[in-house]
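For the sake of transparency, this paper describes our internal protein records without simplification. The tokens are whole numbers drawn from a learned vocabulary of local backbone shapes. One such record is reproduced below, unchanged from the form in which we store it.

. . .
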Amino acid sequence: MRFGESDVALDDRGRSDVEALGLTFTSVICGPELATRETASLVSTAVIVDAGLASLDVGKWAGRLPEEIPGSELGAWFGDPASRPHGGETVVAFVDRIKAWALRAPSSAIVVAGPVAQALLCDGSESFFAVQVVPGCCYDA
């Protein structure tokens, strides 16, 4: 998977996984990524796209595979949530942004990209990379 992909469509497996959940909501708030919007449309006809739920900005890494990133940069990023070797958003700023969104958000179903789910579920930026989320699953944050 490439870093920062936001224009990738939901594939057949993803669509099948979402449909297998059998969920329907009156309305859903979702992030701006294409697959996220498509997923939201599968579970609700009233979808509100909120740019505040955008995934982590990985700057110059966007569209690149992990093996294309120098190991020293990856090490710095995974080792220090305040680092930003890609020039984008730090993990600290990202987690803070998503947690702040959640505090002021209406009680509603949301559909988000994996990193946003990690930020919602982690105890703080130090534990962001320890949280694993499975696509096409429901979590109660």
